[in-house]
Amino acid sequence: MERLRIALGSDRAGHDYKTLLAEDLQASDAVIKVIDVGVHGQDKIPYPKIAVTAAQLIASGCADRALLICHTGLGMAIAANKVPGIRAVTAHDPYSVRCSIVSNNAQVLTFGQGVVGLSVARRLAAKWLTYRFDPNSSAAVKVEAIHAFETSRNSS
């Protein structure tokens, strides 16, 4: 299985989880590189900047996926989805995490530190690393339809 380059980021509300998840990611055999896009310590960088930075790393080919943490995960997903070509989801359960990759080829997973417990977040992140999208699956047609819509909308 190809090892992944993971962009990792949070705002202040997700910093504690980011710190612990960074250790898990760095120790994982599924990960070749962790790119920390912030925040660090008590930085007051707003979550949209963190999310967009991570998403741009994926769009430019410098990262394969991103794991982003804020209070609910929702704001990070909204901001990351503004970068063309990016599919970001918030998921707090195993089935949704699996489907984010297998059915939707989402490159960005977001968590809410205020929503999901740390042990659950750690287990979900570990499983997330094991999933791969099959470009020959029935889901590929649907993902391509999303891409085609986005491309046609951005070119008009």
UniProtKB/TrEMBL annotation:
Q: Give the top-level enzyme category.
A: isomerase
**Which pathway?**
Carbohydrate metabolism; D-threitol degradation; Carbohydrate metabolism; erythritol degradation
Ordered alphabetically, the record's keywords are: Isomerase, Plasmid
**Record's InterPro entries?**
Rib-5-P_Isoase_Actino, RpiB_LacA_LacB, RpiB_LacA_LacB_sf, SPI_LacAB/RpiB
Q: What EC identifiers does the entry list?
A: 5.3.1.34
One GO MF term: intramolecular oxidoreductase activity, interconverting aldoses and ketoses
Among the GO biological process terms of this entry, one is:
carbohydrate catabolic process
Q: Which reaction does it catalyse?
A: D-erythrulose 4-phosphate = D-erythrose 4-phosphate
Q: Source organism's superkingdom?
A: Bacteria
User: What family is this protein classified in?
Assistant: Belongs to the LacAB/RpiB family.
PANTHER family, per database record: RIBOSE 5-PHOSPHATE ISOMERASE, RIBOSE 5-PHOSPHATE ISOMERASE-RELATED
Q: What is this protein called?
A: D-erythrulose 4-phosphate isomerase
The organism of origin for this protein: Streptomyces violaceusniger (strain Tu 4113)
